[in-house]
Amino acid sequence: MSDTRSQRERMLAGDLYIAGDPELARESRRAAELVRAYNLSPRDRATRSSILAELLGSFGEDSEIRPPFYCDYGYQTYIGARTFLNFGVVALDVARITIGDDVQIGPRVQLLTPTHPVDAELRRAKWEAAEPIAIGDNVWLGGGVIVCPGVTIGDDTVVGAGAVVTRDLPSGVVAAGVPARVVREIQPISRATPKPE
Question: Rounded to an integer, what is the distance from CA 184 to the centroid of its chain?
Fold first, then answer.
């Protein structure tokens, strides 16, 4: 039985699809127009918030994205509250990108969900797919970090500048390198009040 789903339905399901499909091309153009408007917008929080509300799947309270910002579709990107994305973040949101609350994302970070077949004939025929990215609460991604398709980063984790995250990272660790590896666990800071002498 042949697959009767649209290319958009295939994309959203994480299956192979053709990106040049007219429906997806329209959605991509719409996102490109909103991204351009955002990147050229004045430093007016209300205007920027309005554009992001139309572009993104969700955009949390007191969050900020410094332009320029780039994405494929926008509606596949979900950003929590009090989260900060610095200049030049790229979110290729062919699959869902979920960013938690209180996240700090450095300049020129790339969140890359698209994948392409290893098989040369499928690539030549323009088939592609994508795998979601999930970033937990209170994560810090240093400048230039690349997060690859299908990666989950746990709460409170720090990823050093320039790292390439190819596999899931647990909560509460520092990771660095290419590919990123856990360097150490983060020990909680004692919140005890010092006693007066």
Answer: 24
Q: List the domains of the chain with CATH numbers.
A: 8-182 (2.160.10.10)
Provide, rounded to the nearest whole percent, the portion of the chain with pLDDT above 70: 95
Q: How far apart are CA 132 and CA 111, in angstroms?
A: 10
Cβ neighbours for 88, distance < 8 A, ≥ 6 positions apart: 68, 69, 70, 107, 108, 109
Residues 6+ apart with CB under 8 A from 9: none
The predicted-structure confidence for 140-190, as pLDDT tens digits, reads as follows 999 999 999 999 999 999 999 999 999 999 999 999 999 999 999 998 776
Annotation says 41 is catalytic: no
Instruction: Please tell me whether the peptide bond between 188 and the residue prior to it is cis, using omega within 30 degrees of 0.
Output: no
Task: Please give the model's pTM, rounded to 2 decimal places.
Answer: 0.92
Which run of H or E residues covers position 127? strand 127-130
Given the residues 116, 161, 170, 177, the one annotated as active site:
116
